Amino acid sequence: MTSWIVRARPAGLRTALLAAFLALAGCALPLPDKPVRPQPYDLGPALPLAANAAPSGPALALDRVESSAAIDGTHIIYRLLYSEGGQQPRPYAQARWTMSPPQLLTQRLREAFSATRPVVEPGAGLAAVELRTELDEFAHIFSSPDASEGVVRLRVTAVSPTAKADRLLGQRTFTVRQPAATADAAGGVGALRAATDAAVQQVVTWVNSLPK
What we know:
By secondary structure, the chain is an alpha/beta fold.
């Protein structure tokens, strides 16, 4: 029994020394970097469209902006038209919208129309005009490595809801392009912000021009 214990000691000692060596070696290894969180972006403060005027126009029912699944997310999308597969949407890895583009545009339209008229939910029977919007494009588009623009394209339909059927008042597609100052996510966001504001102004002007 005594000889077995004597023979076992060197093996135990070697195991302890090996464990200590691995622990010291582990301390010398570089720690993995912390994951980088994507930078959040939104469209910033709304334009002061008649901000000091009380809503006085007829009520407008504003439906939620609809879009395809490719746009209805928080990814900031870009396209490289000068390369193969230029129509393929690509997401920026380290940048995100705080809300999906349809939500951002719905919020922008509501803020703009609320400056001059009451804005209500559709289906409540409180408005003679209902606005339905489809967002077809909302992307940072590169025509070359050094030239890019923010492109917003939406289709707006105005209807007069009735008990039997909706009556079409008008439909129009708005396409707005704004150059990007830089060829990165921040430049794309700035261009899309400017394009969205311009598109919203055009929609408000068009709706206000519809026959009463």
